[in-house]
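ARCHIVE CARD
Drawer: 12
Card no.: 0347
Subject: one protein chain, sequence and derived structure
Cross-reference: see card 0346
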Amino acid sequence: MAIAARPHIRQLAAAAALAAAVVVGSAAAARAEITKWTFDEELLAGLSETVKQRAVEATPKTVAIRINVQGQEGWGTGAIVSAEGHVLTCAHVTEPGKKWTVILSDGTELPATQLGICSQNDYSMLKVEPEEPLPFFELADSSRVRVKQWVIALGHPGGPYQDRQPAVAVGRITALHKQIPIGGGLPGMGAMKFYNDAIQTDCPIFSGNSGGPLVDLSGRLLGINGAILLVNDNAYATPANQMRDEMEALKGGQKVSGVKLEQRKMFQLMQDMQKELGPEEMNKMFGDSPFGQMFRNMMGGGRGGGGGLSAEEKEARRKLSRRAALAETFTTVSGVANASTVTVLRGGEQVAYGVVIDTAGHVVTNYRVVEQPGNLAVTTRTGTSYTASAVGWNGEEDVALLEAEGLAATPAEWGDETALKPGDWVVTGGAGEGPLSAGAVSAVARDIEADRKVPVLGLMSLFGNTPNKSPIRPYTKVLQHDSPLEEKEFGSPLFDLRGRLVGVNVGSFYRGTSFAAGARRVKAALKGMAGGAKVKGPKYSSGSPFGELFGGGGPGQEGGGGLGEMLKRLFGGGGGRGGQPAEQESGFLGVQPNPAPEEGVEGVEVQAVVPGSAAEEGGIEAGDVIKAVDGVEMPDAESLIARMQKSKPGQKVAVLLERGGERLTKSVTLGKRPTPGGNE
C-alpha cells in the first residue's frame, strides 16, 4: 500500500496523537446534553464517587491468599477482620492446603495459621502476625440489607496480578436468604458445602474472588463471596451475621458444625432450582445425565423439563439487575458512544466493533480483526456499509487501524484513561439504541504477564457460560473493568460519563475481567499504524489459565469444580475422568459414599442413594454403612469403587450393611454404570 499517494493518511500521521477529532452535527449537541444529567444519572454518578472512596478504604483490608496444595500453588482472597491479623475467607480456600501465605495489597507476605473453620457452610479463619496493626473491616448487620441495594465486591478474579491490587466490581443485591448446595472437587475439601442463608448479588466476580469481601456503601463487611451460578451470573456470599455468631469460636480454633444439608432438603432445593432456571439453563448444567432425566420426570416435562419463570417474573428480575439499571440510565452517554461506533465485518460476518476517530474514514478496532484474511467492511448504526482496508496495526497494544472510503460517521472525542479510578462508570458503545455494555473500572494501568495460568481455588461455580471470551495473552498498562463482553464485541470503544473515548476493548479472560487499551496508548500507537506499521502481537497462552487440580474452565470449557460436577458424581452422567468416555460395562450400585464420615465409622457410609438405582431397589438407604460385598470387606470408598468397576450390569451381589447397630444383608442387582466418577 503506497502511503505517499494518500494525502489524508500523511495528514493523519503528521497529527500523531489525533487529539483534535472533529465534532460535528448531533453528536456535539448530545455531548452538551451530557452536562445536564437526569436525576437517575446524577444518582449513579454520586454512587460512583462513593464506590471510589470505599474502594480506596477497602483495598488494604483485602488480601490475596496463596495456598500450597500437594506441591502446587493455589490462590484465593480474604478479608482482614481485626487489627491483630485475623482473616476471614472460604473453607474451600483453606481446606486443600497445608501451608498458607497472606499477601497484603502492598505486596507484604505473611505466613498464616489455620484457626477455626465451618466446613459445612464454607467459611474459615486464618491468622497472621503483623509487625504493626492492620486496617480491618467492621462487620455490617447483614439482616438490614435489602434487595436492589448496591454493593462492592473486591478480590482477585483469575488470581492476583503482579501489583497485588484487588479488582473492584460493583453490583446489586438481587435476593436474600438463598439456599444452595455446593459440591467439592478439590483435594481435602471433604463433603459438599451448603450456603444456607446466602446473599445473592449480580456482582461480576469469578474464580479467585473466593473469600473476598462483599462490602456495603458504608464500607462495612456484608459477607464473603463464595460461589457463582454461571448460567445466570448470580453470585452468593455468606452473610456477616452468620459468621459474627461464630467469630469467637473461629478465633479460638474450633471446628464449627454449622447448618447441615439433609438429603431430602437437597432434592427440594434442586426442584426449586428447576422451577427458577427453566429447561434451557438446566440442560446446560445437566443435559441427558441421569440427574437431568430424573428432574425432567419429576417436573413432568419433556427433554427441556418443566419450570422456568414467567415472562412477568423474568422482567421483574431484569429490572433488579445492575445491567438494566446502567443500560437504562446512561442513554445520553450511549447515544454519543454509538454515534462513533461501527460494526466490523469480515467476509460479510461480524467479527468486532470499531470506533471512528476522524472525518476521513479511519476506524480503530481490535488487532485480531486483521490476523485472519478476508474482505473487510464496516457498517454504521444506520445500516450503511462501507468497504474497508487495513492501514496498519499494533499487536502489542492489540489494536488495528482501518480506512473506510466515504465513511460518514461522527468521530469520537478523545479522553484520558489515566484520570479514571476504580469505581468510575464506563460505557461501551454499540450498534443499538442503548450501550453495548456498561460497568465499573476495576483497576488501572494493569500489567498482565505472559502465559497467565494461575490456579485458583473457587469460586465453586455451576455450569454455564464459557468464561474466556478472548485469547489469554500479556498486556501492558491496560484498563480493567467489569463490563460483560462477548467474543465478537472487541474493538468496541469505551467511554467515560462525559462521552469521551478512554479506551478500546481488547480482551476478556473471564467473568468480570474485561480489558481496554487506554486512549493514551492507542493514540501513541496511531502514528506508526497510520504510516503502515504492522507490529505483530505476542503469542497467545496455551491451554486454560486454570489448573486441572483446581477446577474452573478455560477457553471453550464450561465452569467446573462445583455443583454440576458434584451432582454428576452423585447421580451419574457426563464423561469419565480426564475427559475419557465413561466405562459402560461396569455395574452401577447407585450410592454416594460420604467423603468425611463420622469418626469411628468402619466401612463405607452412604451419604445419598440415587433414586431409581439398584441400591434403592435393593433396600439400601442413606445412613447405612456398607461393610462387605459378596463377603469381601469394604473398608473405604475406594474399595467399593474398585469392586464396582470389576462388576457387570445385571450381576447380583450380596451387600452386608449396618443400620442402627443391626447388620443386614441386601441382595442387589446392579444396573448400568453411567460414569466412573465417585458414585458406586
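Annotation on reverse: The two ends are 67 Å apart (CA to CA). The mean pLDDT is 82.
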